[in-house]
Amino acid sequence: MEFTNDEKMLIMLYNPGTRTGLIMELAKLTENLTTEDEDLKGMVGRLVPKLAQLTDKEFNQVLDQWL
Hints:
Order of helices and strands: HHHH
Distance between the termini: 16 Å
Helix content: over 70%
Structural class: mainly alpha
């Protein structure tokens, strides 16, 4: 799975250590966004389905590649 640099940054900033935890953190983030944050909201909206398609093992492999 390919991630944009902006998506990678969101993953690194909000990742609590698990894929499902990251999805939950991103959901919390979008709850607090205003109409001025539409670009960020859209990016999160595209990222969460990508994360949902991955298994935990695949997610950890992706993270290992970045480190």
